[in-house]
Amino acid sequence: MSNLKVLVEEELRSEISIEEMERAERRARQKLDWIIKREGDANGERLKPWYLVHLISEAVCQYRLSAECLLLYGRAKEKDCAAL
Fold first, then answer.
1. What is the pTM of this model?
2. What CA–CA distance (Å, rounded) separates 45 from 13?
């Protein structure tokens, strides 16, 4: 996994925690399985490491964006409640 983690960090140009990597990798592997079952392996292209790295990077970005949105929502909610 450490080799994958390094490749993902290079693609993201950002460090990621082990927990973040594990969570994103699980999600990416599930997505990859779904894609291959639905669309095939594209003559082996989807089985290459770069494809999984891209899916993991995508999952990391999705989780980070979701966390940031929830944080902003929580702050906005606190401000609205404080006005009452």
1. 0.86
2. 24
